[in-house]
Design brief:
alpha/beta, Rossmann fold, 5-stranded parallel beta sheet, 19% strand, Flavoprotein-like_sf, NAD(P)H-dep_FMN_reductase
């Protein structure tokens, strides 16, 4: 039985549009997506939704982003490191999601940081919130230092080679149950 295309959603928590974080996250999603079989990719850049996230009435664009995240098979969640953790923008978006909202997703946390001393943030903070929301986080998160961004393709290719087998196993296990 042929598996349908996996929905790979890239969630970018950088408040700056067209950020390095976004570029790196897209590379990560492409590297993993290219190894897991058929995949459709969607990018949600929270910088474009920032004003709506603080609104008392939920704009359609925010609802659409939430629905895309909830429907993801694979969710690449990317943030720069701010004060040793992920951004408030990403936190604001994730706080809108109900408990266990990510139970159907294999989540891959990714952080871009200026200093290696913050490398644990991807595991201690970002992984923790994804697990709290019910996501299955099958592998260690990816960490890129700002000085490595120019080599991101090469670095993420190696990372994807390590994580894709676990993601494929999760997706395969789900389709066998369905």
């Amino acid at each position: 039985m042929t598996r349908s295309a996996a929905r790979v959603v890239v969630l970018v928590g950088n408040p700056r549009p067209r950020s390095r974080t976004r570029a790196v996250a897209v590379l990560a999603a492409e590297a993993v997506g290219g190894r897991i079989g058929p995949a459709d990719q969607e990018i949600i850049d929270l910088s474009a939704l920032a004003v709506g996230l603080g609104s008392s009435s939920v704009p359609a664009a925010v609802e659409k982003a939430e629905q895309a995240v909830l429907a993801a098979d694979v969710l690449v969640v990317a943030s720069p490191t701010y004060k040793g953790t992920y951004t408030g923008l990403l936190k604001t978006f994730l706080d809108r999601l109900p408990g266990a909202a990510l139970a159907s997703a294999a989540a891959l946390p990714l952080m871009v940081m200026g200093n290696a001393r913050h490398a644990l943030a991807v595991e201690v903070h970002l992984r923790a919130v994804l697990v709290e929301l019910g996501a299955f986080v099958p592998t260690p998160g990816a960490v890129l230092l700002e000085e490595q961004v120019e080599r991101a393709g090469e670095i993420l290719d190696g990372w994807a080679g390590r994580v894709a087998p676990q993601v494929t196993a999760v997706l395969g296990g789900r389709s066998a149950v369905a």
